[in-house]
Amino acid sequence: MEHQCIKFKVSGRVQGVGFRYHTAYFGLKNGVTGYAKNLWDGDVEVMVCGDKTQIAKMEAYLHQGPPSAKVESLLSEIVEFKSYKGFEIL
């Protein structure tokens, strides 16, 4: 299977609600690699690397997030593939 990386920018009530931790757990469970990090503007950046099926599952999850979050928008951008070890919280 062909692997790729997609960078997501998640906006809404996504900081201070466990969003990165839940995303990392879901990512590890789903077999993708990458990271989740808070941005200065209150959004969260999520890098997801894996096959198309895995990335689609992560994208569906990011539209919802954990119950404590309120996702208002989700932007995505295909980026150059990079190999990550696991799924980190930055």
TrEMBL record:
The family this protein is said to belong to: Belongs to the acylphosphatase family.
EC number: 3.6.1.7
Recorded superkingdom: Bacteria
InterPro entries xrefs: Acylphosphatase, Acylphosphatase-like_dom, Acylphosphatase-like_dom_sf, Acylphosphatase_CS
Molecular-function GO term, any one: acylphosphatase activity
Pfam families to which the protein is assigned, alphabetical: Acylphosphatase
Name of the featured protein: Acylphosphatase
Residue ranges annotated for the Acylphosphatase-like domain, each copy included: 5-90
Reactions listed under catalytic activity: an acyl phosphate + H2O = a carboxylate + phosphate + H(+)
Keyword terms: Hydrolase
Transmembrane segments: none
Stretches of the chain forming a coiled coil according to its record: none
Active site per the UniProt annotation: 20, 38
SUPFAM superfamilies: Acylphosphatase/BLUF domain-like
